[in-house]
């Protein structure tokens, strides 16, 4: 049974308190927060004032996905804004190991994210130091895109690598996930499913979360 992490990016920003209440009353354990800087990705999302307000409205885990250049400049800010898990992109970090150490030294769990074109084998030396790997199953920057089928092969390869190394690392998959493909993703070895438009775009987000949880 996977952890479900609805992505706030697809919530109704004119009615955030309603969507947070739905989330609070659902079986989802984590809230996925996408931070975009207009440099690493072509889009700009939301920032600290939004995070700080939502932090006061939920006790669930804050799963923060940084799609930003130089994430090390903001690690302490995200800790202060309430992040529990902070994930940086492999492609955005010149000193990934140092960034992971910095995140963990502040008491957060540390994740590393890979873009769809980045192979699993770049993780070999960092895997023992991270709590989670996030595999992008769409190109980062936007919600509502289609799942890239090759992600299933990547999940299987990563599952094998983690098991062979005897590690306990979460595998989070992000982008284009719905009740239609969730079973295949979980069966391949994923442990955390991010879903934005499939959850907040649905008439009954709580029911969709329940269905995703059943796989
Ligand atoms: O990180 C990202 C996009 O860059 C994701 O977290 C999306 O927000 C997921 O949205 P859907 O694909 O589920 O609509
Ligand atoms: Fe994300």
TrEMBL record:
Which Pfam families does this UniProt record tie to the protein? Answer: Ribul_P_3_epim
Q: Which SUPFAM superfamilies match?
A: Ribulose-phoshate binding barrel
- EC number per UniProt: 5.1.3.1
| Record note on cofactor | Binds 1 divalent metal cation per subunit.
Q: Which CDD domains match?
A: RPE
Which family is this sequence assigned to? Belongs to the ribulose-phosphate 3-epimerase family.
What role is this protein assigned? Catalyzes the reversible epimerization of D-ribulose 5-phosphate to D-xylulose 5-phosphate.
Name assigned to this protein: Ribulose-phosphate 3-epimerase
Give the species this sequence originates from: Polluticaenibacter yanchengensis
